[in-house]
Write a structure and sequence with these properties.
Blueprint lengths: L2 H7 L26 E4 L3 E4 L4 H9 L4 E4 L13 H6 L2 E7 L2 E9 L8 H13 L6 E4 L6 H14 L3 H11 L7 H9 L10 H7 L44 H8 L53
Parallel strand pairs: 2-6, 3-5, 3-6
Antiparallel strand pairs: 1-2, 4-5
Helix pairs in contact: 5-6, 5-7, 6-7
């Protein structure tokens, strides 16, 4: 799967009202690193977007981007001045249909209290497609973006804590160890006021039957009820039982875009798996998790020192 296909060919980034309007060139991998879908057409994860990428997203109809390191939007650069002064960085752009804007908001991932606002934005995007997709990013698109994405899958798609951990590990660099992230995956309790119907789960949640590496191929062809949001991808049953299929090094490297992982791709059978939520009953028993649930810990006030995205 090419990066350009994810951005343009699938139509996943397109505003349903944009049609064939010309926009800036699709950003490169360096400008929008490790862009991956999480929930069909409404939630994506990545590393820090460049100015060019933000402009492209704005022109394409995106409305909200969350920086999971707060105003520290890059690993080495200065803090975002607009976020410090105003609590957000409002960007303007000119599309063929007229002026548009996109909001870049700080939402430090170590502060779990930011999750309801992000989840509300996701739900609003599902119920009101004109609001555009939501992007969550950390520095490299691996660890904290993975945590928020895993928690979104718990919230909206019924993943168990064990499955959320499996998703996080499959999409992080191999050997990553972030105890606070793992603890958050287990201590999180889905918010009862922000849930999807069974029909919405079928449409927006990824099919994880073969791999926890969510790519556009994890979504099935769209049905007519969703024409306008995305021309090629939808979803099957959110969390069917896993089969012991090996994830090929090529697909694993493509999903993570990290050359360090090509030589060591895990098998799905190696990942811990648990029971899914009662909202999404499995069709067959799932394997027992490979490790016990870690105890919940108090939230940290800042990301851990060695955190690198």
């Amino acid at each position: 799967m090419s990066f350009g296909l994810l951005l343009v060919g699938s139509g996943a980034l397109a505003d349903p009202h944009r049609g064939s309007e010309p926009v800036s060139s699709a950003p490169s991998e360096e400008q929008l690193p490790r862009l991956r879908p999480v929930l069909r057409g409404v939630l994506y994860r990545s590393g820090t977007p460049s100015e060019e990428a933000l402009n492209y997203l704005c022109e394409s109809g995106w409305k909200r981007v969350y920086s999971l390191y707060g105003e520290f939007t890059t690993q080495l650069g200065p803090r975002n001045v607009n976020m410090l002064r105003h609590g957000r960085d409002q960007r303007q752009c000119n599309a063929a249909a007229g002026p548009r804007q996109i909001e870049w908001r700080p939402a430090p991932s170590s502060r779990m209290r930011n999750l309801p606002a992000i989840f509300q934005d996701i739900l609003d995007s599902i119920r009101n497609p004109e609001k555009g997709p939501v992007l969550v990013h950390c520095w490299n698109g691996l660890h904290y973006a993975g945590m928020v994405s895993a928690l979104a899958l718990r919230q909206f798609c019924g993943l168990s804590p064990q499955q959320a951990e499996a998703y996080w590990r499959a999409n992080a660099n191999r050997g990553a160890n972030y105890p606070l992230i793992i603890a958050n995956l287990y201590s999180f309790k889905p918010l009862p006021s922000l849930t999807l119907t069974a029909e919405e789960q079928q449409v927006y949640c990824p099919n994880l039957s073969k791999s926890y590496l969510v790519t556009p191929e994890a979504f099935a062809p769209v049905d007519r009820s969703l024409e306008g949001r995305n021309a090629t991808v939808a979803s099957n049953v959110p969390v069917p039982p896993l089969s012991p299929l090996r994830v090929s090094p090529a697909s694993y490297g493509s999903a993570t875009r990290d050359p360090r992982i090509h030589a060591a791709s895990p098998t799905v059978g190696e990942l811990p798996v648990g029971d899914v939520s009662s909202r999404v009953p499995p069709t067959a028993p799932l394997a027992s998790p490979s490790q016990a649930s870690p105890p919940a810990t108090r939230e940290a006030t800042r990301p851990s020192a060695p955190a690198k995205g």
